[in-house]
Each structure stands twice: as structure tokens, then as C-alpha cells.
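Re: the 234-residue chain
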Amino acid sequence: MDAKHKLIADFKVTNQPNDQRQLAPMALRSKKILGKNDFTVLADKGYYHIHDLVYCHKKKITTYVPKKAYANSTGDKQFFPDKFSYDSKDNCYYCPAGHRLSYYQSKKEDGKVVGYQYRNRKACQYCPLKTRCSKNAKGRTIFRQKDQDILDDIDRKTRENLKTYKLRQMIVEHPFGTIKRAWGASYFLTRRKASVSAEMALSLLAYNLKRVINILGTEEIIRRLRENKQAVLV
């Protein structure tokens, strides 16, 4: 969705049950369509995925996406991973009880390092808060993503720009309210992905046409169409 005029820039029908791994592909498609290098994307936490956020960062796409809260094994919110503070100078973590967790080992997937693990089993063994922190008999281990610095920067910018992020609801929910509530298209009439994509495309095309008519007016649209037609014929 374009924030200025509430026009739909692009869409894609998917049979995925959630929004995971959809942020980067849609952001890149929209960036290409709009032809802009200075590009900012607003998305809810359902789109929060490490690889997508890092990829968008490398493609110089600014993303405001709320950080997900990951639980620990006990479910005690006071001991969720985000309650552990990282000290970049000494490359260590400090737990809510004040104990220092030092670098233990790197974690690999398919032969590539994806992150690093930190722990302090001696401190965990005698910590009176251990039962609230971990069910592991050996104590708590904290995992840090290889690109955690990028994720922390995105999280910081999102928190600093909450006023901008909250515009997301007013921007992206606008067409759904119009199409589903005002037009009564609350469910699909077709089946299979190709047919549903065509049905969705027609609905969004109608929405965009109505928006453009409200923005430019019928006469201006006709004038521009005639100019484009002449340019093509020449």
C-alpha cells in the first residue's frame, strides 16, 4: 500500500498459513514497481523473520517491524531472552539475576555459523531463581544470532518511530475495509490459487480505479489516457 494515496502497489496470493518469509519478497517487488531507492516498509510482528529483515537491510530497505517476544522454558516473562542484556565490549550477557554468561560456542547449520551460545553453568547451579529461568538441569543457555546487531538496530528504529509505525493500520487496513465491508466481498467465490489470484486482482483493480477517480477525477483520468494513447501511436 502507498501511504500517500492509499493505492495498492502490489499483491500476491499465497497458501502459506502465516506471514513468515513474506516480507522480503513483497518489499523487493514493491521497490521495483515504485522505482524508489529510499524505501520504508511498515509491517506487523507476524512478518518478523530474521532472514527477511537482514535481507531487507542489505538491500537498503528500511523496515519498521515490532520485535517478537520469545519465551523461555518456564514461561516466566521476567526471564525471557530479551531480559538478558548484552555487553558488546566484553562479548557476554548478564542475566536478570546479575550473573555473567560468557561465550561458550558457535552454532552451525549446514556448515555455516548462524549464531553464538552463552552460558554460566556454575552460576546457574547455585542461583535461587533457576526454577523461574530454566528447566534444564545444567542451566540456561542464551543464543545470539550472527546478525543480531542488525536486528537490534531495526528494533531500536522501530521503537523510535512508533508514531510512523502506527500509520500501518490506517494504510493497509483501508482496502480491506472497503472491499470486505462496503462491497460485501468477504470471501472468495473461486477455488485454486490461480483463480483466487485472478479474483483478488479484479477486486484490487476496482479498488485502485475508484481511488484514482476520487483523487484525480474522471476528466483528468481520460485526459491522461488520451495522452498515453497518442504517445504509443507515435
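The longest strand covers residues 100-109.
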